[in-house]
Amino acid sequence: MKTELYNMLKSSAQAELDKSKLTLDLLSNHAVGIGDHSTDDYYKNAEQALCMYIDAIDRLEGLEKYFKNEGCKDKAQEGVH
Length: 81
Hints:
The chain is mainly alpha-helical. The chain is 73% helix and 0% strand. It is built from three helices and no strands. The protein is elongated, with a radius of gyration of 18 Å. The model has no long low-confidence stretch (mean pLDDT 84).
């Protein structure tokens, strides 16, 4: 896998992880700021944030496990200058 692709995928997963943490923090510590949402909306939002969190962790772990030691190729490694 090219370094640029690896870095993009890792950054995307990290952004999703950060977003899910922020959402869970907002839901658990600042629920009064959420507004006129029903309890059902609150629970759905919490479940969605948890799924996003777990998905991001899985993506980061998968990249680390399956691609980091693969020796991501960049242009210099491929002989393209």
